[in-house]
Specification:
single chain; alpha/beta; Rossmann fold; Alpha-Beta Plaits; 2 domains; six-stranded mixed β-sheet; four-stranded antiparallel β-sheet; 26% strand; elongated
Length: 323
C-alpha cells in the first residue's frame, strides 16, 4: 500500500475579481518509509498541495489518498494518520516547551500520566529537554522549528508533512533539523516535505518532484534527475559582451546566463580544446572554462528554463529560455 497516492489534483481559487489556478495538475505517489520532496520556488503550488493532502483545503479536481484512505471523503480518518508542521503554526509563545507538549498530548486524548511520559520523550527526541521550562518566546528560530516538529509527532503519525521546515534557519540549525528528519525516516515514519532549497532536496529526499507553476515537471531520485540531462555541463565565462555575443553565435546550442554560456555534451573535458580553438579562431576571448557533472540546479534549469532563486548560480529573475 502506498503512503500517499495523488492523481491529477487541482486547486482553483475563485473570487469576484479573479480566478487563480494555484495547482493545475499534480500527480505523484510516495512509498511507505521514504522521504519525498516537493521542490520548487515560492508560488509554485507546493504549500497548496500540502494543504489539500492534509485536509486543510478542499480538492477542486482529482483525487488523493493517505494509506488508502480518501482525503476528500474520510478527512477525520486521514488526520489520525498524519502529522503536519506548516510554515506558520501560531505556537503560543507564552507557554513553556513542556506545557505545549503536555497540552497537545491531552488534546490527543492521552491521560495525565501518559501525557507526561510522552512529553518527556518528545522533548528528548527534538533536543529540547534542557529548554523545557523556558517560555517559547525565548527560543531561537531553530529551536522553534524543532518544537513544531515535535508537536506534529505527539500522536505517533505514520506520515509526516513538513512545509518548508528549514526556511529562515541558519546552516547549523538547518543541519540539526535534517538529522532529525532522517532519524524519523529511519524509524519508519514517511516524510513528505516541501522545499525551495536544492541542497535540502538533494540531501534528504529519496525521491523528488519538481513543481513549477502548479505542475509536476520532473520526478525521480536525485541521481535519476541528474542523469536525465546526460553528459557534462561545460561553462564558458567572458569578460566582454562582444565576446559573449560572438561566442553565442558559434556555440549555437548553448544557454546564456549573465556573462556565461553553458552547453551540455558527452565527455565534456575532451571537448573543451576543440571549442576553445573554434572560439579563438573567431577572435573570441574566453576568461574561464570548466566542465562538471550535472547538478540538481542544472536539472531545475533544464525542466523550467530558469534557476531556482537562491541557488548557487542564480541571483537573477526568471528567464524562460528553454533549451
Amino acid at each position: 500500500m502506498l503512503a500517499v497516492d495523488v492523481k491529477n489534483i487541482k486547486k482553483t481559487f475563485i473570487s469576484k475579481q479573479d480566478t487563480v489556478e494555484a495547482v493545475k495538475d499534480v500527480s505523484f505517489h510516495v512509498k511507505q518509509g521514504e522521504i519525498f520532496g516537493l521542490l520548487g520556488p515560492n508560488g509554485a503550488g507546493k504549500s497548496t498541495t500540502i494543504l489539500m493532502l492534509t485536509t486543510l483545503l478542499s480538492i477542486t479536481e482529482g483525487s488523493a489518498s493517505i494509506l488508502g484512505i480518501d482525503v476528500a471523503t474520510k478527512d477525520k480518518e486521514v488526520r489520525e494518520k498524519i502529522g503536519v508542521a506548516l510554515q506558520d503554526t501560531g505556537i503560543d509563545n507564552l507557554l513553556t516547551g513542556h506545557e505545549l507538549f503536555f497540552t497537545t498530548c491531552r488534546l490527543w486524548g492521552y491521560s495525565k500520566k501518559d501525557s507526561e511520559v510522552r512529553t518527556n520523550e518528545l522533548l528528548e527526541l527534538v533536543g529540547l529537554t534542557e529548554a523545557a521550562d523556558r517560555r517559547v518566546k525565548t527560543y531561537s528560530g531553530g529551536m522553534k522549528r524543532r518544537l513544531d516538529l515535535g508537536l506534529s509527532l505527539v500522536h505517533s503519525p505514520e506520515i509526516l508533512f513538513l512545509d518548508e521546515p528549514t526556511t529562515g534557519l541558519d546552516p547549523g540549525s538547518r543541519r540539526v533539523l535534517w538529522d532529525e528528519i532522517k532519524r524519523l525516516r529511519n524509524n519508519g515514519v514517511t516524510v513528505i516535505l516541501t522545499t525551495q532549497y536544492l541542497e535540502e532536496a538533494d540531501e534528504l529526499a529519496d525521491r523528488i518532484a519538481i513543481i513549477d507553476e502548479g505542475l509536476v515537471v520532473a520526478e525521480g531520485t536525485s541521481d535519476e534527475l541528474k542523469a536525465s540531462i546526460g553528459g557534462d555541463v561545460i561553462t564558458f565565462a567572458f569578460n566582454h559582451n562582444d565576446d559573449l555575443k560572438n561566442a553565442k553565435n558559434i556555440l549555437t546550442n548553448s544557454v546564456q546566463e549573465k556573462n556565461e554560456l553553458r552547453i551540455t555534451v558527452e565527455d565534456g573535458a575532451s571537448r573543451i580544446p576543440g571549442y576553445l580553438k573554434d572560439l579563438s579562431n573567431q577572435g573570441v576571448e574566453v576568461s574561464s572554462v570548466s566542465a562538471n557533472k550535472p547538478t540538481l540546479d542544472d536539472v531545475f534549469l533544464e525542466v523550467t528554463g530558469y534557476r531556482l532563486e537562491g541557488s548557487e548560480s542564480s541571483q537573477q529573475a526568471k528567464q524562460k529560455s528553454k533549451r
